[in-house]
Amino acid sequence: MGALNGLRIIDLSQIMAGPYCTMVLADFGAEVIKVEKVNGGDDTRLTGPFVNGESVSFFQINRNKKSIALNLKTEEGKEIFFRLVKEADVVVENFRPGVTASLGIDYHSIKNVNKGIIYCSISGFGQTGPYSHKGGFDLVAQGMTGLMSMTGEKGKRPFKSGVAVYDMGAGITAVYSILAAYIHKINTGQGQHIDLSLAEIGLPWFAWESAHYFTNGTVPEATGHRHRSLAPYQAFKTKDSYLMLGCANQRNWEKFCTDVIMKPDWIKNPLYMDNTKRMENIELLESEIENILVLQNNTYWLTRCENAGVPAGPINRFDEAMQDPHYLERGMIQEIKHPVIGKMKTIGIPTVLSETPGEIRTPAPLLGQHTDQILSTLNFSKEEIRSLEKKGVTKSSSHLISALMK
């Protein structure tokens, strides 16, 4: 039994932030009912790559969920939705502010039928403020918050992060916010509205940058492969590749000098004697270290660092990371069978709970795969279910599942 068994979530979200949030909660046992558009469903279903016409991108972020295709612009569709949320604990949505109110499914409308509802809204700029009306995306947030001005090489074109950090960060923030609200609900019976903004969730991550800025007004610039405050804590070229070296404290630095590169005299060198001096002379320090590291290959230096207890690691390509024996042994690469895609690998669950571990139980659903099942639990007859589908209120793929199971 999962840690969140009994938690019922109605998921109106699509693309990445909301679906990642609800997938994490589903991994730990929450029941997630994904409410999708009748025409096309979650927009990620239209994003490749595709196998047999099904999106593998959608597959990767929507496991352990049920799908009901529902037209919320119809009164009948809205009535079905309210019957669902009446028995739910959480609603997650990522519409632009104002859309849920225009549909009549906003927090205050739902609170009238379920006072204990936890309603999580994820948007670009939040539900209030001068930018609340604007659409927001991960790239916009990366630019607006200053992240891109710090990423890449100084004086050159700003770089975005290699992954959608604010989308995923918003999903993670939504997870812990929902769990905090759920604990409050358990204690008091009271629900609440959670307002999350992509443009804000990442600001607290700038701990070192804000320390400098709020202390002396220093505006952080791009530092490329180097750390902003520690040295040497960065990428270095070796004979055959690159490695990351993390001398995050004086002890690491001294062990690196004595046991890895055999330069004990650097410890007392006035240019390198402490972190402040090493940062002041980073150009010279980097050059001198690299002149030594390029004499041997990555494996040689990583072995020496490991034996010396100095933090270091390779800079893997993604395919190398996916084949790393450590990740494989820890179960971070899983395989699951999908009714249309077939067997497909997916990233596993990074949190290991000793008593209630997460579990990948089912693959991402087909659009409307559980429509009939969910409507049946709401006491709709088979005739009513077929009538709703004919009128375009719902859509079901249960017939496809039945055919595939034969």
From TrEMBL:
Domain of life: Bacteria
Annotated EC: 2.8.3.-
Top-level EC class: transferase
Keywords: Transferase
Transmembrane annotation, as ranges: none
Signal peptide location: none
InterPro entries assigned to the protein according to its UniProt record, in alphabetical order: CoA-transferase_III_domain, CoA-Trfase_fam_III, CoA-Trfase_III_dom3_sf, CoA-Trfase_III_dom_1_sf
GO molecular function, one term: transferase activity
One Pfam entry name: CoA_transf_3
Protein name as it appears in the record: CoA transferase
